[in-house]
């Protein structure tokens, strides 16, 4: 199966599952929980006011919706757009968080994240590099190797380890252990 046909199949599966949940329960999509296998290719979640459970090892996950929660085990790449979305994962390769009021929570390993939106929350057990270009964002990690801040009014807190910090923004709060 080609990448484009796998993406089309994933989108069709998501749309079909949401429609089935709507008609089966007699409720709106905001009350439906949907499970999608994302091991076949990239997945785009574009339905607002819903909860989606992605199963399998995901390649690319794009959330371009509003008020949507996406739960998954692992993904190579996650992109969050729109507003008031939440992605909960165990492991993520790279992430881009745009839009407003979006959240990414990674319970194990986040390799690289770029926050371009505002009022975002990023929480990870560990991360290699986080770049914050937006404003009013909150980044928290138990361990973070490097953080680059170019926006304003952001908060970064790291509990353990050594963190290299580059701060070119204004009014940022950074709390990390001192490098030795």
Automatic annotation (TrEMBL):
Name of the featured protein: DUF3060 domain-containing protein
Organism, scientific name: Aeromicrobium endophyticum
Name of one Pfam family that matches: DUF3060
InterPro entries registered for this protein in UniProt: DUF3060
Keyword check for Signal: yes
Record key words, sorted: Signal
Signal peptide segment: 1-32
Lineage of the organism: Bacteria, Bacillati, Actinomycetota, Actinomycetes, Propionibacteriales
